[in-house]
Design goal:
- There is one protein chain.
- Helix 6 packs across helix 7.
- By secondary structure, the protein is α/β, with parallel strands linked by helices.
- The mean pLDDT is 90.
- It has 8 helices and 12 strands.
- The N and C termini lie far apart (41 Å).
- Helices cover 43% and strands 23% of the residues.
- The radius of gyration is 18 Å and the shape is globular.
- Strand 6 and strand 7 form a beta hairpin.
- Strands 2-1-3-4-5 form a 5-stranded parallel β-sheet, with helices on both faces.
């Protein structure tokens, strides 16, 4: 069963989300604030595929919950629920490890497209770990990408990646030296049916640079191709 944890303090919105997901075959657990969400996640030993987090919640806000969940798991799918006025919070959520965000108000079709996309990524990650890769490793010194274990090393040191970050790095490693547009990356990682804009790519590139570059503000490996996108050197 596909399991989703919802953390939303507005009961009407939470109920709509829960009904929509249940109709689509998801097993849903509902919580009404950040602390409840953390407690339920811990109680269930992290046995959720996707977590939907409202940013503005009592006790512990969604950004803090996102940060704690991502520290606990690099593979759980996290989607932030935001208002149109919370532009900086969207960026903050992505930088803290969220996979995506949905802006309120949203339609049931958009909700399902986002949740299904993140769930597929989680399922693919689990499947990849269970099956041997055709090529176990891709080495682009000083980096080594292990496709079987889905890990990245730099100079022999493990770099912790989220599932989205791993997919982005894998795409770059498979196209080393080639300029990839934001739209290319968006389609490869988030899928053809993604509802959002290209901003999610830029934020994830920024987050990746903070992990892989010695000086993120002067990247030497993941560089910008102005007017185009990015490439790996």
């Amino acid at each position: 069963m596909k399991k989703v944890l919802i953390a939303e303090d507005e009961s009407a919105i939470r109920e709509i989300i829960a009904i929509t997901l249940k109709r689509a075959g998801y097993e849903v657990t509902e919580t009404c604030d950040g602390q409840q969400a953390l407690d339920k996640y811990s109680e269930m030993n992290g046995a959720f595929d996707v977590v939907l987090l409202d940013i503005m919640m009592p006790n512990v806000d969604g950004l803090e919950v996102c940060k704690r969940l991502r520290n606990a798991s690099s593979t759980v799918g996290i989607i932030m629920l935001t208002a149109k006025t919370q532009e900086m919070d969207k960026v903050s959520g992505l930088l803290m490890g969220a996979d995506d965000y949905i802006t309120k108000p949203f339609s049931p079709s958009e909700l399902m497209a986002r949740v299904d996309s993140v769930y597929r990524r989680v399922a693919m990650n689990n499947q990849s770990k269970a099956q041997p890769a055709k090529t176990d490793k891709i080495v682009l010194a000083p980096f080594e990408l292990n496709l079987r274990n889905r890990t990245l090393y730099k100079d022999g040191k493990l770099i912790e990646l989220t599932q989205v970050e791993f997919q982005i790095v894998e795409y770059f490693f498979s196209n080393a030296g080639k300029a990839l547009s934001r739209n290319d990356i968006l389609k490869q990682v988030w899928g053809e049916s993604y509802f959002g804009d290209e901003k999610v790519v830029d934020v994830n590139i920024r987050r990746l640079r903070m992990k892989i570059e010695d000086e993120p503000s002067i990247p030497k490996h993941l560089v910008t191709v102005w007017g185009m996108g990015y490439k790996w050197l």
